[in-house]
Amino acid sequence: MDLQIRIEGGPVDEYVALADWLNGNRDFRGRVRQELGPPTDGTLGGEWVDMLTIAVGSGGLGVALTNSLNKWLENRRAGLVAKVTVTSKRRTVKLRARDANAEAVQLLGEILRDADER
Hints:
Blueprint: E1 2-8, H1 13-23, E2 32-36, E3 49-55, H2 61-76, E4 83-87, E5 92-96, H3 102-117
Antiparallel strand pairs: 1-3, 1-4, 2-3, 4-5
Helix pairs in contact: 2-3
């Protein structure tokens, strides 16, 4: 199963930073793809990262991803006012970097545990 992560309101560089952060964790190395946005007029392909896709499969990566995203957000709260949206097949959760709270992190954990069980 793949999960999609979008960052709203932050610079495009945040996608690269998050991808690097996740790839620094051996559990996610090779599982994170940077998806390019749609092409602009007069170009052949996308030029910026529009979304991250993470292949979580089955095997308990949901808890690891929850913890990793929470830590990444904590490290950015002071300077990033963005929303991180994580989507599995049927459910979506948004975490605001500035004030990610325990309830949102718990919901993210439930979504990812649900993904682990499929």
